[in-house]
Amino acid sequence: MKTLCIVALFAFLPALSPGAETRLIFTKSFPGSVPPYVEISLEKNGNVVYKEAPDDNNPIAIQLKKADADAMFALADKLDHFSRPLESGLKVAFMGKKKFRYDDGSPREVEFNYSADPDAQTLLDWFERIAETERGFIELERSVKYDKLGVQNALLLIETARDQKRLVAPQQFLPLLDRVVKNESYMHMARERASVFATEIRALAEPAAAQ
To answer: Is 73 helix (H, G, I), strand (E, B) or coil?
Structure first.
C-alpha cells in the first residue's frame, strides 16, 4: 500500500495552464511485468509523482535533487522536447511501450519500444531508476506494516539498488527506517541494518543541507 502525499495533488491536473510548471512525463505499459504500468511526472524543481495506474488514487510524491532534475531536463532539450521519432527500427524483443512527454502548455510526446539514441537511453535510465526505487519503497512499506519478518529482505533489496547506484531520493526511506529502528518487535538484525542505512542517508544529506 502506498502512502498518499497531499503534495501529489498537482499531478492530477491533465494539462498545464499558462504559466504553470513545465513537466516531463514518462509512461511505460508492459502487461505481464511488475508493475504492468508506470507513470512518472517530473517538474523542474525536482517534484516527482509516481503512479502504477493511470487512475492511481495513491501516488507517491518524492523530491529529486535540483541537479538531478536539471540533468533530466537537459536530456529532454537534447532530444528536441520529443518532437522527433526515437524508435530505433531494429528488430528487438518487446520491452514495453514507452512514452516521453514534454508538457509546457504545448505538449509534445514520442512513443517507442527501443531507442538507440544515447540521450534517450540515458533519460530512460533515469526514469527506470526512479521506478526501481519506488518499487523498493513500496515493498519496504508493505513489509514494515504487514510482514515484519520480510523487512530484512526488503532492506537487502534496497541496499543492493544503492550499491548499484540505482537508488534516487533515498531520504524518502527515513521515516520507514526510523520506525524499524525504534520498534523492538522487528528482528534485531533488521533494526541494525535499518539504523546503519538511515545513518548513511543522513550523512549524505548533511553536505547538501550545508550548501
So the answer is: helix
As a whole number of angstroms, the distance between CA 65 and CA 186 comes to: 32
For the chain, the domain total comes to: 1
Which has the closest alpha carbon to 62: 206, 172, 174, 176? 172
Residue 13 lies in a domain: yes
Contact 100, 87 (CB under 8 A): no
Cell readout for 156 is: 537487502
Q: Is residue 1 one of the residues assigned to a domain?
A: no
Q: List Cα–Cα distances, 70 to 7, 75, 149, 184, in angstroms.
A: 21, 9, 39, 41
Instruction: Judge contact between 96 and 30, C-beta under 8 A.
Output: yes
Q: What is the pLDDT of residues 51-68, one digit of tens each?
A: 999 999 999 999 999 999
Q: Please tell me the pTM assigned to this model.
A: 0.87
Residue 62 identity (one-letter amino acid): I
Q: How far apart are CA 19 and CA 24, in angstroms?
A: 15
Q: With respect to residue 90, please indicate whether it lies within any of the assigned structural domains.
A: yes
CA distance linking residue 151 with residue 160, whole number of Å? 14
Phi, psi of 23 (to 5 degrees): -130, 145
Instruction: For residue 185, tell me if it sits in a domain.
Output: yes
87 near 191, Cβ under 8 Å? no
Tens digits of per-residue pLDDT, 142-158? 999 999 999 999 999 99
Domain housing 156: 6-210
Is residue 151 within 8 Å of 137, Cβ to Cβ? no
